[in-house]
Write a structure and sequence with these properties.
- The chain is about 30% helix and about 25% strand.
- The protein has an 8-stranded mixed beta sheet with strand order 6-7-8-3-9-10-12-11, sandwiched between helices. A 4-stranded antiparallel beta sheet has the order 2-1-4-5.
- The model has no long low-confidence stretch (mean pLDDT about 90).
- The protein is α/β, with parallel strands linked by helices.
- The protein has a domain of about 160 residues: P-loop containing nucleotide triphosphate hydrolases (Rossmann fold, 3-Layer(aba) Sandwich).
Length: about 325
């Protein structure tokens, strides 16, 4: 892993206007991503974890400019993605790709596998027809599929095989940066392990940089080199995998480890009373620290001011007044 930054995200926000039932105009603001700053280092696997609805998938899609931003910046090797024209972004898609969550709905059921995998080659007019076909065959072998099956349709494959097709499609243009958006959450556990190992093998062979988004802490812990924890559109903790596993400090991160099937007896006892109450709505989040209504350690300041993401040790940052001893 290099210390060079391939992605820089600066105070990124993505808000959605939504309508109440019966209303003719947007009446509420859903703050899916609400001011986050982080970097992705070249060659690393940055895991992003949090409960469903915390904004992690929206963040990943906004980083790739599949969504327009509300505020902030996303830099790819120092270049502002949102300052680029559509023509320039078409070229950028050769460097950045996404593996989607659902391996069935993300594949066109009316197209054969060869067409699905090779579509981006056709769009960018890369090579001759024969060269594109050779590339498709190579990619199918690369992800563990028999090239003889290239004339089949997606419904003729299992869930794990369909996800391999999605992975092959994402590799067609030889990207540098890949966002894996819940790439294994729809698969059986045994198939999850196969796909995770495939992603690791591909990274070792081609030096990809991944942003791996998931709600399963065990999966993120297995594949990541660093882990970013999100809650209601904001980052609450970020550290190397080893540091986060052995010294997680934010109450929300502690609660995630408590909820994980693999926990130490000490953590289970300590976390018995964490995760009180329901997840607040991102349309109307609590004032101050968004986690304070569910946090057993919350103090008065937590109710009124949101804590900044502050480094508590080299490479380890957390957004918590109590952890920062600033109360």
């Amino acid at each position: 892993m290099s210390n060079d930054k391939i992605i820089e995200v600066k105070d990124l926000k993505k808000h959605f206007r939504i309508k109440s039932e019966g209303a003719t105009e947007s009446t509420s603001l859903l703050k899916a991503v609400d001011g986050i700053t982080f970097d992705v280092l070249e060659g690393e696997i940055l895991g992003v974890v949090g409960e469903s609805g915390c904004g992690k998938s929206t963040m990943g899609k906004t980083v790739l400019r599949l969504y327009d931003k509300t505020e902030g910046e996303v830099l790819y090797r120092g270049e502002d993605l949102f300052a680029k024209s559509e023509v320039q972004m078409k070229e950028m898609t050769r460097k950045m790709q996404m593996i989607f969550q659902d391996p069935y709905s993300s594949l066109n059921p009316r197209k054969k596998v060869a067409k699905i995998i090779g579509q981006s080659l056709d769009i960018h007019k890369i090579g001759t027809s024969a060269e594109r076909l050779d590339r498709v065959k190579y990619l199918m072998e690369e992800v563990g599929l028999n090239p003889k099956f290239r004339s089949r349709y997606p419904h003729q494959f299992s869930g794990g095989q369909r996800q391999r097709i999605g992975i092959a499609r994402s590799l067609a243009l030889q990207p540098e940066f890949i966002v894996c958006d819940e790439a294994v959450s729809a698969l059986d556990v045994s198939v999850q392990a196969q796909i995770l190992n495939l992603l690791l093998d591909l990274q070792e062979r081609h030096s990809f940089t991944y942003m791996f988004i998931a709600h399963d802490l065990g999966v993120v812990e297995f594949i990541s080199t660093r882990i970013l924890v999100m809650y209601l559109g904001r980052i609450v903790e970020i550290a190397t995998k080893e540091e986060l596993v052995n010294r997680h400090v934010h109450p929300y991160t502690k609660a995630l480890f408590i909820a994980s099937p693999v926990v130490s007896p000490r953590d289970r006892k300590e976390g018995k009373h964490l995760f009180q109450g329901d997840v607040p709505s991102p349309i109307n989040p609590p004032s101050g620290c968004h986690f304070h209504p569910r946090c057993p350690y919350a103090v008065e300041k937590c109710k009124h001011a949101y804590p900044p993401l502050k480094e508590i040790s080299p490479g380890h940052s957390a957004a918590c007044w109590v952890v920062q001893n600033d109360i």
